[in-house]
Amino acid sequence: MSRIITTTVYTLNELSSTAQEKARDWYRQHHADSNWYENVYEDFREVCGIFGIDLRQRVF
User: Domain of life of the organism in this record (predicted)?
Assistant: First the structure.
C-alpha cells in the first residue's frame, strides 16, 4: 500500500546557531572524503578521448 511521507527541509539561515553547527558537522563527517564526482571525471575523460583531446590532470 502506498503512503505519503512528508519531510520538512530548512535553509541554513532558518536554523539556530546550534543547529547550523550540527548540520555543518554532519556534512563534514559524511561528505568530506566522498568521491561522488569521480564518475563525472571519468565520463569527461572518455568524451575527450572520443574527440581526440589529450587530457592532463593535476593532482593536489
Answer: Bacteria
